[in-house]
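Much of what follows relies on a compact textual record of a protein's fold. A record is reproduced here so that you can trace the correspondence yourselves:

. . .
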Amino acid sequence: MTSEPFIAALKYQFLWWFGIGLVALSTLLIPFLIATDNTPNLDLLLTSYSIAGFFWIGLLYESGKRTTAVTLHPEGFAVKKAGRSARHFLYSAIQSHNERPNYNRQGSFSELTIYLPGYWFAVRSNEFTDYEYLKSVLTQYGQAMIYRPALTLPERNWLRVAIVALVGLILANMAFGYLAHDEANPNPARLKTLPVVVAEVKAQYVKSRFKGVSICSPDCSGITFYVARRHYEAAIDTLPETIVAGMLIELLIRESDYRKKIAKTQPLTFGDKYTGDFDEVNVFGVRQGSWVRVRSSQPVYEPTHTKPHQRAMLLSFLLLLCWTGWVQIDRYVVLRI
C-alpha cells in the first residue's frame, strides 16, 4: 500500500475557519474600538468578552472533533485535527472503534470514531468522500464497541482552564457592576441652563430608527450634547433643520454634568469614567430664539450607570452554564497514554 491522503471537503474546512475568523475578529475588534475611543467603555468590554468566551470554549471543544485529514501508510496512518499538528500511529495501536448515525443542520451522516492510547478522532461521511474505504481499512483493527464520548488529557485540561478563566471574567464583570454603580438619589436632579454657540447639529439613527439629536459647540470642546428622543413627548426629529448653526442656544442639563464634565470642579466617579459616556451630556430642554422651544416633561434623576443586582442575576446564569460545562466534561472518558 502506498501513502493515500484523504482530505475533508473544503466546504467544511472553510466553514470551520470562517467561524474561527469571525469570533477572533470580534474579540480583537471590540478592544480596538474601546482603545481608540475617547471614552473607555469597560462595561461593553467585559460583557462582550463574557459572551465571547463561550464561543471560544465551543471552538476549542469542536476542534477535538474536527478531523481535517487522514493519510494511510503501509504500516500505519496519520491524523490531523483542525488547528493541530498531525499525529502518526501504527494500525496495531487502534484499540476500538464505533460507527453511529449523527446529524447536523445540513442533514444526517455516519460518524466513525477511532480510539487509541491517549488519542481519538472521528471521521464523518458527509466530510470525507472516501468514508467507506477509510472505514474498511481502520475497522480491521481493534474491537467494535458502543460509542463513548472521550477527551484526551490535554483536551480536558485546556477546557478546564478555559472555563476557569471565563468564570474569573464573569466574576470581574459582576464586580465592575457594583464598582461602577452610583447610588440612586430619590430626589430629582438639579438642572442648569447652559448657553453655548452651535457648531454642528446631527440626527442620530440606529438601524434607520431616529434616536435623538447631537449638538456640538466650540465652547465645550470634546463634549457632545445629546437630545434623546426617549426623554421627550413632543417630536424632536425636526431639530436638525430648525436649530441654526453659529447662533447661541440654551441647553438644559444636569448641574452635576456641568461640574464634572464641563467646569471640571467635581471629580468623575468610577462609573462616569468607565461606562463610556463621560464625553456626552444629556439635554433635557432646548431653546433657541422663538422658533425652538422643547423641554422634557419627565422627571430627571442622577445616573446610576449600572444595575448591579440585575447584572449579577443575569451573569449568574452564565456561571450556571460554566458549571454545567464543567460537569459535562467530567462525564467524558479521559484517554491516557
Observations:
- The CA atoms of residues 317 and 323 lie 10 Å apart.
- The longest strand covers residues 107-116.
